[in-house]
């Protein structure tokens, strides 16, 4: 790890805030949804808020190519979801700070080599639940996660 990567990891673990319980959300409960645990299993700040968004991002990396997504479109949807998740909090600034760190860690450090190109996707990507867990064109996936 470089020093900047270690600093990002450190920033993620310094503050632990508990948001809503997201364990019952459909895209989060599937065995293939990795949440933010791809961050080496660290307990990160706002993990309850970010986990379902990390799961959708992880699923987009695994299956997105089958449904017309690129790494860039997965990353853009993830960024939008993180921003949306923080905006409704009473004090969104700490959340935004940690969202920026989660985004950088997931995209630049961990995710660089994990996007599955077309024809190299996971076998579970054809299962019926997958399309509903992926970003829609021009939308973020937060509404799908909470069953709206």
TrEMBL record:
Sorted keywords for this record are: Signal
Provenance organism? Batillaria attramentaria
Kindly indicate where the leader peptide sits in this chain: 1-19
Q: Which InterPro entries match?
A: PLA2_conodipine-like, PLipase_A2_dom_sf
Which taxonomic lineage is given here? Eukaryota, Metazoa, Spiralia, Lophotrochozoa, Mollusca
Name of the protein this chain belongs to: Conodipine-M alpha chain
């Amino acid at each position: 790890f470089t020093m900047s990567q270690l600093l990002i990891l450190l920033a993620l673990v310094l503050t632990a805030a508990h948001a809503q319980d997201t364990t019952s959300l459909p895209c989060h409960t599937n065995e293939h949804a990795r949440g933010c645990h791809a961050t080496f299993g660290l307990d990160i700040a706002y993990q309850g808020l970010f986990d379902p968004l990390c799961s959708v991002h992880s699923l987009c990396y695994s299956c997105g190519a089958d449904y017309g997504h690129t790494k860039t479109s997965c990353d853009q949807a993830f960024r939008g979801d993180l921003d949306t998740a923080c905006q409704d909090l009473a004090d969104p600034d700490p959340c935004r700070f940690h969202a920026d760190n989660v985004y950088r860690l997931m995209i630049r450090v961990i995710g660089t080599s994990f996007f599955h190109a077309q024809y190299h996707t996971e076998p579970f990507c054809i299962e019926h639940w997958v399309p509903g867990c992926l970003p829609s064109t021009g939308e973020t996936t937060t509404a799908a996660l909470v069953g709206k």
